[in-house]
Amino acid sequence: MARSWIISLALMVPLLGLTPAAAQESLPDPVRIGIEGAYPPFNFVDTNGEVQGFDVDIMNAICAAEKIRCEFVIQDWDGIIPGLQVGKYDVIIGLGITEERKKAVDFTDKYWATGNRFVGRKDKEWDYTPEGLDGVVIGVQGGAWQEAYVKAELPQSVMRSYQTLEQAYLDMEAGRVDLVFSDTVLLFDFLNSDRGKDYEFKGPEYDDPKYFGTGVGMGIRKGENLLRDTISSGIRKVRESGEYKKINEKYFPFDIYGE
């Protein structure tokens, strides 16, 4: 009788979700964070070669809340998902949550969300329709969701993709680009700088989830559920403790978490 009971319990283990793979799953130590390092104020490299910014402060707070060790690995954005998939790092920070990207990676909860805008010279104006932007040169960051939007919805425009937004800004200042299209909060940082005094937001805010997703989260390799859930738990703890608000106010004069 006892033997039959033990056998029955063993057969129930898979039904309870206690598979050998789940039992063996553990967090990497340290957890390596893939980060661009060229997306101020979210992330940038300081004069000492250290990565800094909103993303870094948030990630450090998450790691402290979950009592895990984390280190940052700098990676160009156009190779950010392939780098995750080959094991160069364990987490991508600052990845827009879209249905297309969900085919390649799993996502944590979001940790910020914002709309998308154009920025251009104050003394120039356009009709912000596909026809009105015919021939207008639009700068975007390569691999970002704004690139996909312009390619699909504004085919009559001339799109130029750049490795970093800074390169797009430089070409706009030099007159080689008419508009730069990016996240509202990133463009706000440019507009508030000395070099942004002759520029302003242009056109409406764009937030079509087909292109711009449902916020920005952390990308995790498919199936690494423990890591995904741990980071999501850390995001919630940092929000609930008030630490998120402190970090937000350090970089932005408005709440970037969204609804």
From TrEMBL:
<keyword id="KW-0732">Signal</keyword>
<feature type="signal peptide">
    <location>
        <begin position="1"/>
        <end position="23"/>
    </location>
</feature>
<dbReference type="Pfam" id="PF00497">
    <property type="entry name" value="SBP_bac_3"/>
</dbReference>
<dbReference type="InterPro" id="IPR001638">
    <property type="entry name" value="Solute-binding_3/MltF_N"/>
</dbReference>
<feature type="domain" description="Solute-binding protein family 3/N-terminal">
    <location>
        <begin position="30"/>
        <end position="255"/>
    </location>
</feature>
<protein>
    <submittedName>
        <fullName>Transporter substrate-binding domain-containing protein</fullName>
    </submittedName>
</protein>
